[in-house]
């Protein structure tokens, strides 16, 4: 005699099958979500690490450039100081010879003036310093006096300061990318941790936290300067 299957048993079997199918579908969706998160994290981490290395390299280059400019500044500043001493000394000897009436010695020292000192000296003579008490004390105080070495030193100093400032900004940007890499590593850890749990609620919760952190990290990546 054939066995009969009751309606409640059939309904229970169908319900159990639908529940199992639903659980399998949710598990598959969770796994797909985790895979997508891991893919985004991998790409963002690689990009953030790459930018960290680029900005660190830029920082090192700018700091080296600043040191080069600073060395040039010191070299030209030293030369400028030596030239000022020479200008002052030769003018002092010229002035002393003039006061003593030794025109031959005065002419000798005048020939020893540096080319860029001569315009200031000529302009100073035009102020009639012998009879004009308001005349500058010497050509070095005249507006026409220029020292190329001093100007080069000033320009090199400005370039050194600018390179140092840019290097500091590069270091700060590199630090930002490094912190973002740590944030992405946290996302990676939470996503990997979620895969260890069998409870779907826990996995979904960890995925949600990971997704929020990933969005924050991606926002930072998009807002930071690129090297």
What does this structure look like?
It is a single chain. With 227 residues, the protein is an all-alpha fold. It has one domain (8-223). 81% of the residues lie in helices and 0% in strands. The protein has five helices and no strands. The chain has helices at residues 7-100, 103-111, 118-126, 148-194, 200-223. Helix 4 (148-194) packs antiparallel against helix 5. The radius of gyration is 40 Å and the shape is rod-shaped. It starts with 6 loop residues before the first helix and ends with a helix. Residues 9-19 have low confidence and may be disordered.
Task: Summarize the model shown.
The chain is mainly alpha-helical and 227 residues long.
Apparent shape? rod-shaped
How many DSSP helices?
5
- Count of strand segments: 0
Task: List unreliable stretches of 5+ residues.
Answer: 9-19
Termini separation (Å)? 83 Å
Beta content comes to under 5%
Order of helices and strands: HHHHH
Main pleated sheet: none
Number of domains: 1
Helix percent band: over 70%
Q: What is the arithmetic mean of pLDDT?
A: 86
Return the structural class: mainly alpha
**Mind telling me the C-alpha Rg?**
40 Å
